Amino acid sequence: MSKASTSNKKQLEKVIQLLEEQLAHSNQQNEKQSKQIELLTQQVQHLTKMLFGSKTEKSKY
Predict the structure, then answer these.
(1) Disulfide engineering: 52 pairs with which of 21, 33, 40, 57, CB 3.0-4.6 Å?
(2) d(CA 35, CA 42)
(3) Positive or negative: CA dihedral 43, 44, 49, 50
(4) Degrees, nearest 5: CA angle 28-31-33
């Protein structure tokens, strides 16, 4: 293998490593945001129930 080819391979490996790290970080953020969305959804459901009370009124929202 030539020096240029070896250098390119190392650069590609580094890029792949950085992309994998970014993907892992993005996945963690997505998981965290999904949990926040779930909590907010539960809060909205609770507040809607508190606001309207009856099941028939609640079902509109």
Answers:
(1) 57
(2) 11
(3) positive
(4) 110
Give the C-alpha separation, 43 to 27, whole Å.
Answer: 24
Question: Are the CB atoms for 58 and 47 separated by under 8 Å?
Answer: no
DSSP 59: T
* Separation between Cα atoms, residue 14 and residue 21, nearest integer Å: 11
Output the pTM of the full model. 0.66
Counted residue by residue, the chain has a size of 61
What is the C-alpha to C-alpha distance for residues 37 and 43, in angstroms, rounded to an integer? 10
User: Which residue reads 């070896």 in tokens?
Assistant: 6
- Residue 8's identity, in one-letter code, is N
Q: 60: which DSSP letter?
A: T
